[in-house]
Amino acid sequence: FPPVVAGGSRANCLHYITDNRTLSAGELVLVDAGCQYYGYVSDITRTWLVGGTFSPAQEALCEIVRRVKQESIQACRPGVTLNFLHSAAIDMLASELQINEPALPSSPGALPGPGHPRH
To answer: Residue 73: what pLDDT?
Structure first.
């Protein structure tokens, strides 16, 4: 399956694969790459800054993601299900985004969206 590589507002399009836009410094580029190995299928989604430095809104969102990632890792232990971790991460993200709403942009496309739909 082809990787998703998209920047700016196009990163909000799930499974965008046209790849025909030049990115500018300060924009974010989303990469969603998949793999398959002996029946195991996985993917990884990452977002990088294209040159320059993060805007305050981009930095605020990155810090939220870092905190939620760290808390999710700390919650991993025997007996904890993937469904629990997934739900807890969604709840943490929702809470963080509500608390930090003034620091985040209000215009669509200012930050890339998720690489996958929420299940």
So the answer is: 95
Q: Measured between alpha carbons, how far is 29 from 19 in angstroms, rounded to an integer?
A: 11
Compute CA 31 distance to the chain's CA centroid, rounded to the nearest angstrom.
9
**pLDDT of 111 strictly over 70:** no
* Relative orientation angle of helices 82-99 and 56-75, to the nearest 10 degrees: 150
Tell me the whole-structure pTM to 2 decimals.
Answer: 0.67
Q: What single-letter amino acid sits at 56?
A: P
Beta strands in 1-119 (DSSP E): 4-7, 28-37, 40-49
